[in-house]
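Hi! If you just cloned this repository, the fastest way to understand the data is to look at a raw example. We've pasted two of them here, unedited. The first protein comes first, obviously.
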Amino acid sequence: MNVERELLVDDVVAALTSPPDGQQLGGCDLREQMERAAEEFDRRTAATFAEALVDSLCEDPGNTRRLEALLILGLAHPQIVKRYKISLASEGRRLAVLLENAGESDRARSLLELMLKHDPDSREVERDLSSLMRREGNIDELVERLMRNAEEQVQAGRPMEAVAWLQEILLHDSSRRDVARMIRDLRYGEATRREKATKRNRVAVLLVLLSAAVSGLVVREVQLDKAADALPVAAVDDLPAIRERMNGIDEMLDTHKAWIGMFPLLEERGALRERADALEAQVAQRQREDNRRQEERRTIAEAARLEGVKAVEGGNYEQALAHFRRALEFGSPTWDQRDRTFADIAALEDWLKENR
């Protein structure tokens, strides 16, 4: 990029991110910058700005200020940025990682919150914001946010979506027994009502069974008790076994509507479901952590590779070699730049041997 184009891009960044006249630097947050961009720049100006920013980011994708300016412009004029087939959600999440790595966690959080206002249904952005708040130690505020999300889903008639948010609360605060109860009530509301009706009729059922003199009823009770004893045993931390035992209990309760031994099974089923919820939350947390670590390593690998390319362009071949090796260290076996980075390292090593 020549000097004139560099100056043009810097002017664009300043126009989009600088505070209004009379306001101190840093006094204008991302939301205000986005609103100002929507008000002050028409479609033609926005299109010119977008072209300059996209061209510059193709050459320097790790430039946080230019990427931030593009996000502000994209949120203010989304129809302009769509022409370049740019995903604002993906680029916004990438910018948030870069800002956090640069020590600007507050700005990264403001960016993610602004993106959620424009796309409230983005679970990826919501998940990134939750992870950032957890890393910053804002657990109480995070739990309140997740609880609000769950309440909104309940009011919208989407109980299973609410369950997903409540499960995340348990990941951050496993002592919230009230949340576990809410999950159980939402997921098994209809079953709970049936159980309450069954308990109300318990005395009547007992009287009927006790007064029955027919031997067939006695035989049936014995057979059902044996069937209950033969249900699969489940260890407290074995989720598949817990599900198998729950299925066995549900099948017995659905098939046989009333017998004396059903009441302990009803109570056990509630306890098993509560334990299954906790184990499912642990599994989901481990998966999210694995995904987060993989994404962080990919970001580090990409950043190291970009630094290596810059070092090559500046003639610092030893430094470039170190950056490329770091990129390989953090890049996964399926990283799309892995083969190219191997080739760059081999070329640099050959050149250094020949020119020493």
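Ok, and the second one:
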Amino acid sequence: MQSNAKAWNTVPMEITGSLRWWAFKQVLLKADLYAFGGGNYLDKGNIAQTFKGGADVSAGLEFRVNKMFSAWLDINNIANQKYQRWHNYEVYGLNVLGGVRVSF
């Protein structure tokens, strides 16, 4: 059995933080921070490489119409950072998602 010098394709450090605040009776404000340190990978030539870490900030809001219906909007990667979460897996740049939630 062959041993490896490093733990490949792992993230050595991750920091996450979230804030959820009901600013008004019907409005929820959201903020998220995600940061990680770069990891190690083997390239096509089987040579050890290190990719850079990254950081991501997201924000959003939810408007609760009543106990059954709400609408939400999230803005992710606000700084439009370009980084790889894993080797050759780039993250999306700035993206906006929205929707309607029905609870019953």
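That's it. A detail worth noticing about the second one: The longest strand covers residues 54-64.
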